[in-house]
Amino acid sequence: NCGVKTAAIVLQDSLGDVTVDGVIGEYTLNSIENTNNDSLISAFRENWHDYYDGIVYKNPFQKKENSQLWN
To answer: For the segment 47-67, what is each residue's pLDDT rounded down to a tens digit?
Structure first.
């Protein structure tokens, strides 16, 4: 529900060793292949929660409206 580019940005940020530009290219794919899956999933989930926390910080009304959808 956030769009492909935002999801790509969260993924790239989770990898930590690629340019965060929202474009899944060769470097991002190579990094995914060379990253421990459990570590990547853990980092992705944490960054995803941070993304939604940022939405709520900017607009607290969003928490009440969307909290059940985001968990």
So the answer is: 998 988 888 788 777 766 665
